Amino acid sequence: MEKTPPASLPPVETWTLSHPERGQIQVHIGTDQQLRDIDPGFPVAENGENPATSSGVPSEEESEVAEQVFLEQQLAKLSSDAPKQRVLIMIDGDPVGRLKDLGNSKLSLKPDQIGKLKHGEYTPPSPVLEAPMLKLESNLMNSWMRSIVFKAEGEPGIELDPPEGSFANKRLAAMAASPWKRVVYPLGAGLGKGGWALASLILIPMVIRFLEPVITWIRELLPDWEINIPWPEINWPEINIPWPDFGFPDFTAPDWVLFLLEYSKVWVPILIGLVLGVLALRRHRKSQELKRRWAAGEATPNQDGADADRRATPPRNGEGTEKSLCWGGMTDATIARETEREEVLAKARAAKAVTRTLAKLTSTQKNEILLAAAEALVTATPEILASNEEDIAAGRERGLNESLIDRLKLDADRIEGIAGGLRQVAGLADPVGEVIGGHVMGNGIQMKQIRVPLGVMGMVYEARPNVTVDAFGLALKAGNVPLLRGSKSARYSNEKLVEILQNVVEKFDLPRETVQLLPCETHDSVQDLITARGLVDVVIPRGGAGLIEAVVTGATVPAIETGTGNCHFYIDGDVDLDSAIEMLLNGKTRRCSVCNATEVALLDAALSDADKLKVVEALQEAGVTVHGKVSELEAFGATKVVEATEEDWTDEYLSFDIAVAVVDGVDAAIEHIAKYTSGHTEAIASNNVFTIQKFADEVDAAAVMLNASTAFTDGEVYGMGAEIGISTQKLHARGPMALPELTSTKWILQGTGQIRP
């Protein structure tokens, strides 16, 4: 029987640094399984088991006491049988380093080192002598991380921010609250670096003094042996060397010098510790001040004095002109980075300037633009397909898998479908100006709450050219200005689509900045977009788990989270099996690379062996590879089953693969879904109305399908038109995000001169 992960398992610690030029640097600390949920390439536990299942489940009373749970979590880190804590380093959602433990270490962030990271392997140890690098420091017992510092060439060391609730965060909070601790803590940490030597020098003599009577007693018990060894007598020749007489003057050192020399083994470690502590305190203060200046826009990383001096000196013999991630200095790469950043901010400023113009458009004007855009896309199909072919060729050359190629690929039918989405949006009610509430106050003031545009809407998405048009259509109808940051994989397709859309809006006397595409040369442009506070009103990520995590955790502007789709389909024992199989195949094989594809099939143990086998064979006959517990599936005659790992239950396949498990009724199915769901779509096939109602009531997801395929979770199918994405969060929006979800509200109060007493 599969074990249940402990409720008190410490959550992943995520340290962050939003660097204006380097991007979002994150250091995740957790178990193997927790880190594989973030980075599928993280190595499997050394014992081959799921590390998250190695501890017991706390009692209900313990789970209700927040402080007690916190203490359990911290003790779990120190427990000998607790899951091993590992380290994952990411930049803008891409893994760049994996460490086995929390010990003090340095990690090179040079491009040639980053490129060596392989799937399923830890970062190989190597001496780090120069920037850029990360320096990780843990406590003496290597049980928790004390500080993580990023060092780039020409920059002071910048500390990453520890997460709320961590030991390091509590330590910083204590330092902030107490001037005394602000000095003592860093000094103590520095002193700790020489602590073992100091402890040895102090404790060993004390232990010897304590044991001296015992040693004397043992010696008295031992016999007085006399051993005579006949050593040979060797007559060495005498050598007289006439040493010159230098006549040095007599010198007697002062008593304090003799004292220091005699006890140097004690005070030297203390002095070294104090110096290191002072340096750590200065680094912390400098780091906090520099981050404050970044946030206020008062400085960039290359504006410190030392770097300014270096920039003033021209490179010699081509030194410092490499175009790479070799950070620091005004290299060609730095110039390109500054240019890219300025392009993002300039486009954001231009988008902000357009918001008031779009907010004044009438519904008729918006609909005319949308219909014209749909027609223009269909007319330009040959040009769009030619650009799309460039992307596909480049993708295959880079080794993109076929599921990603499928997402990227356009054809005439798909373009017609994209245009149809715009026409459908044009036919929907305009949400802007809709009155959603209100009343009249007792003093006669009339109140009403109306929908208004959000403003500048940043979109970060992967290799889906259709999102470019979907975002434009929904944003325009909701009165928003889309700022699009698509994937480099779809660059040519996106450029062509945006060019067509800009030509359309220009014909309606609107600025071309009504829709803009941001540069995608580096991941840094994402960071530029999601930190453009004051210019961008909301950012929406749409893509894989790594992209969504990077955007949501790194954004300083409001972000709406769209989740991945690990969708389950439960077949109850009381079911029309042929209909259930048809729904299951539709959810899996219709389009396997989309987020509403079925990824896990749960079979009720009450089904006969013949019925279970029929389900598995139907999947295999459709070309789907079945994963699961081989012994469990072979028990009812299934063959050619691939043994499942933990990732088969936690991750999307986005391919012709599916995980199959046998569960003991609807209760066990709900438990399995609760453990592994991504909160997207969950489905049931059953003839029992009570079972169906229980499933609907107890499953927590954005969409619950009752005797229907998971493929129906789609904004267009819902009648919303093209969607921005499927939100799996619970604030602002949940499920398909269409027009109403892309607006905010404001209150309008109409009075006749009333004043408040």
UniProtKB/TrEMBL annotation:
Cellular component terms (Gene Ontology): cytoplasm
UniProt xrefs under Gene3D superfamilies: Aldehyde Dehydrogenase, Chain A, domain 1, Aldehyde Dehydrogenase, Chain A, domain 2
Source taxon at top rank: Bacteria
Pfam families for this protein: Aldedh
Pathway stated in the Swiss-Prot or TrEMBL entry: Amino-acid biosynthesis; L-proline biosynthesis; L-glutamate 5-semialdehyde from L-glutamate: step 2/2
EC number of this enzyme: 1.2.1.41
Compartments where found: Cytoplasm
UniProt-recorded Gene Ontology molecular function terms: glutamate-5-semialdehyde dehydrogenase activity
A single BP term in Gene Ontology: L-proline biosynthetic process
InterPro entries: Ald_DH/histidinol_DH (IPR016161), Ald_DH_C (IPR016163), Ald_DH_N (IPR016162), Aldehyde_DH_dom (IPR015590), G-glutamylP_reductase_CS (IPR020593), GPR_dom (IPR000965)
PROSITE patterns: PROA
Positions of the UniProt region annotated as Disordered: 1-21, 36-63, 292-325
Catalytic activity field: L-glutamate 5-semialdehyde + phosphate + NADP(+) = L-glutamyl 5-phosphate + NADPH + H(+)
Chief location of this protein within or outside the cell: cytoplasm
Keyword Ubl conjugation annotated: no
Protein family according to the UniProt entry: Belongs to the gamma-glutamyl phosphate reductase family.
Primary role: Catalyzes the NADPH-dependent reduction of L-glutamate 5-phosphate into L-glutamate 5-semialdehyde and phosphate. The product spontaneously undergoes cyclization to form 1-pyrroline-5-carboxylate.
PANTHER family reported in the protein's UniProt record: DELTA-1-PYRROLINE-5-CARBOXYLATE SYNTHASE, GLUTAMATE SEMIALDEHYDE DEHYDROGENASE
NCBIfam families linked to this entry: PRK00197.1, proA
HAMAP family xrefs: ProA
Protein name: Gamma-glutamyl phosphate reductase
Species of provenance: Corynebacterium occultum
Taxonomic lineage of the native organism: Bacteria, Bacillati, Actinomycetota, Actinomycetes, Mycobacteriales
